[in-house]
Amino acid sequence: MKRILSFFAMLALLTGLAAPAQAQQSASAPDRSFSLTIPSGWVAIPPLELYLFEHPGRTAPVTPEELAEFRKTRMGFQRPADAWFTLPYMIVRLETDKKRGPQELFMDHVLAEKDSEAGSGGEGYRFREKDHLPTKRLHYYKDVSYSAAQGRKVAMGVYTYLTSRGFLRVAWFVGENELRSYEPTLHQSAMSVKLSPELEYVPEGKK
Amino acid sequence: MSATEIIVAKPLALHLTWDGDTLDSIGLRWAGDADVSAPRTGLGRELAEALTRYVAGERVEWPVLPVDLSRLAPFHRVVLKELYRIPAGQSLSYGQLAERCGSPKAARAVGQVMAKNPWPLVFPCHRVLASGGGLGGFGPGVEMKKWLLDLERRSCAG
Q1: CA torsion angle for B121, B126, B127, B132 (degrees, to 10)?
Q2: Staple partner for B37: which of A34, B8, B118, B147, CB 3.0–4.6 Å?
């Protein structure tokens, strides 16, 4: 009996070790400058929805040229739902006109807490975690704060990559009540960014 | 607990002052005859290597300094972030830097931030000049400011 139990214990362990991480699918920027994996079954948020989300005061029609330019640097994904920006969702944003360096990435990391707390107005704010990974030229930051738009507490993770064009930020948002079930997958997605050789940061003096 | 170390790559010397794991300040000055480089930390060694290449006229990327900007006033932080983005071989006036910080009328305040810059050379306050094209001030001396700008101009041209 003991041998059978230990067999099942071993089998359970091996099964657990061999189990694939939560299924993911791949997504790329329109110009292929970067790619990342997103949770399986998630859908892309249309560029126009992303544009209007970012420019809430906009009343004039968005021209095709504006949208074409905008979509070069923005991507959004969410779980299928009746409305766009239903939690949880992810937004990717690439800067294009900033020459930044590793020192700025570090400073961004140091100040992340302060900047985020100020941005959230401090209501219900709770710092969760942050890390700076200099060899990957990446830092990330996670917190929870009250969102007036959502009418509840929302957890957020922002992952900042240093690229040759500036920072590439991947941000995910999830209701605090669903954080435990979604966080591992969202973290995996946000950490999966791959930059093209052109977008890869090249240190000064090595160009 | 503060500790210090000295980095020398003649003609320049950097005096690093640490507050625990945070780099409190860098003192920049001309190296004296008796000055000898004595890096004690990993960062000190990286800085020594970069400084040697810098004074030899190479374009270098300075190592990441473990600085704590959260102790500085918000405007001071914004100015230092924008200052850091001025590349070698280029310069801005105090007014232009103030504009980049979103406060076009704050040239004088920018000048004060430059005067108190705790990490010269890496945060290149020597690349900020007076509006009329004059050199403006520089803590370690205007002669050094001119020398640094000439060095960087040559390294970018080459």
Answers
A1: 180
A2: B8
